[in-house]
Amino acid sequence: MSVNAADLNTPHDGKRYLWLWGIIVAFLPLIGGGLAAATGWSAMWFFAPFFLYVLVPIADFAVGKDTTNPDEGALAALESDPYYRWCTYLFIPVQYVVTVWAAWLVGSGTLGAVALVGLTWSMAILSGVAINTAHELGHKKPSVERWLSKIALAPVAYGHFFVEHNKGHHRHVATPEDPASARMGESFYAFLPRTMIGSLRSAWRIERERLERRGASVWSWQNDNLQAWAMTVVLFAALTAAFGWVVLPFLLIQAFIGASLLEVVNYLEHYGLLRQKTADGRYERCQPRHSWNNNHIVTNVLLYHLQRHSDHHAHPTRRYQALRHFDDAPQLPTGYAGMIVLAYLPPLWYRVMDPRVVAHHDGDIRFANLQPGKRDALLRRYPPPADADARAADANATPGETEAGAADLARASRFECVECGFVYDETEGCPSEGFEPGTAWSRIPDDWACPRCAVREKQDFVPLSA
Q1: Which long-range contacts (CB under 8 A, 24 or more apart) does 422-431 make?
Q2: Are 438 and 427 in contact (CB under 8 A)?
């Protein structure tokens, strides 16, 4: 079944009023508790997992897909409409109210074992989905939204995501250097510790390098990681002080499970996809083919269009309501909710996804991101086609991306990111990145990435005329 978004309500965004449903996830623990109180069945505390892993995949299948894109002439209006921002803003106060309620309930000691496990799992789902809200807000330009992103990350104790995702993952996505890009043949259970540890290290390194340029210590309060982690410490300490020590293990467990929910989504978003290196040794620019996508309406509404992942990587600062579908982007067989269930079952995941990775690379998985320890076994199972060597030679001859002319660079004092429009002005510098006013463009490191979108490096900036 397929639904045409143009038939759903408004001329510019057929899903306009459906986005309000995204907040329902924040209410799931309350709904479960209400059902348990009304029926007397402790199993009702597991309503949130049932909703995510059973009801949403069924609803995706029943409601269908929406492949329509917003009209190009409507993009500016969609982006500036404050309604969409409030759909994400409202998630956060509900998230905090439910978190305090859950901590109070755990501290009261009135829950049985089954109810406590169900509540913990339900809160983990809320916290995990809250990372998606933080993700949407953290990419935006207004400082208030970036702070709201950190606030949303506090209950799940994953504040470093704000740094690593924006400045690490988006820069290195679909390469072996990215801890958040899964490799073909890598199970979710092997990916989880690699991405959690690797992302933490990446976030710390990114902030250390930025602060070193500013002449500040990595342990200063200018460190975005420390700011975000401090919010978690204050929140957990306040809830523990208010409701007792029994609350602390509950908060830590739900945070870990919630973070693992984020990481299973990371696992499926780029599984087996690899950007190739160009003749100049750089990775090719991220293209629609480097992200798995899906257009099932229900999961897209609940996750603010996260499944239109290719356009998100192409335009990280673009708001969710304006993200587009690409016909040439690789497609998942079902929505993220259903794919999460598959990821938890590695044999089934490999059976479904590995053939898709092979087909996406036209049968030659030497161009895929392969798990190093399984590379030989995968190549034996999926040998390259007969004409693979000729195709590989053509691919390796891919030219690098052009840079601005030396004369233009010498004359200019302002340089613009071709992706997001960020302008580096030599007279103003970029103090937040450690470049004081008056810092010449020639003194900026070659591997410096745009501080706004992170998907373009220095050599991709274009000089602006005076």
Answers
A1: 422/450, 422/451, 422/452, 422/453, 423/464, 424/461, 431/214
A2: yes
CA gap 26, 16 in Å, rounded:
19
Residue type (1 letter), 251: L
Lowest mean pLDDT among 11-15, 142-146, 206-210, 253-257: 11-15
Interval 404-425: pLDDT, tens: 555 555 578 899 998 888 999 9
Q: pLDDT (tens digit, 9 = 90+) per residue, 204-223?
A: 999 999 999 999 999 999 99
Give the DSSP letter of residue 457: B
Q: What sign for the dihedral angle of Cα 73, 455, 140, 336?
A: positive
Q: Read off the tokens for 169.
A: 């993952």
185-199: b or e for each residue (b if 16 or more CB lie within 10 Å)? bbbbebbbeebbebb
Which two three-digit tokens encode residue 69? 């894109």
- Whether 459 has a pLDDT exceeding 90, the answer reads no
Which domains does the chain show, CATH number per domain? 5-342 (no CATH), 406-464 (2.20.28.10)
